[in-house]
Amino acid sequence: MLNWIGIAAINLAIAVALGAFGAHGIKSMVNAQQLAWWHTATLYLFIHALGLLLVGLLIRLRYTTQTTAWLLQIGVIIFAGSLFAMTLGAPRWFGAITPIGGVLMIAGWVWLAISTFRAQQY
Q1: Which residue, among 115, 105, 116, has the nearest Cα to 70 in the 3D structure?
Q2: Who contacts 26 (Cβ-Cβ below 8 Å, separation ≥6)?
Q3: N or C: which end of the chain has fewer CB within 10 A?
Q4: Which key words tag this protein in UniProt (predicted)?
Q5: CB 89 within 8 A of CB 33
């Protein structure tokens, strides 16, 4: 079993670093739209890293499965990663995969609800 708490902590460290880089490192190198993409990506990375931290605890307590964690992790990589990439110069059509990440994150939260309701029945 993967250590989802550790993975969440790594995500949080990356979110802090990328947030600081967005606030100080690239601010003068990108336009307002690109900076907004960076901020959105950082916000979602933070929120979902914190969520993944909670999910890691719930997995250890057997309230949910690793499916929840995988959906959240892959979703945030695709969602935030595509926005970070576009900010750094990837073609704008690259943003077409951003919603796939969003759908995976939504699926992760829905799976958490389903699995915790199931756990409550036992």
Answers
A1: 105
A2: 35, 38, 87, 88
A3: C
A4: Membrane, Transmembrane, Transmembrane helix
A5: no
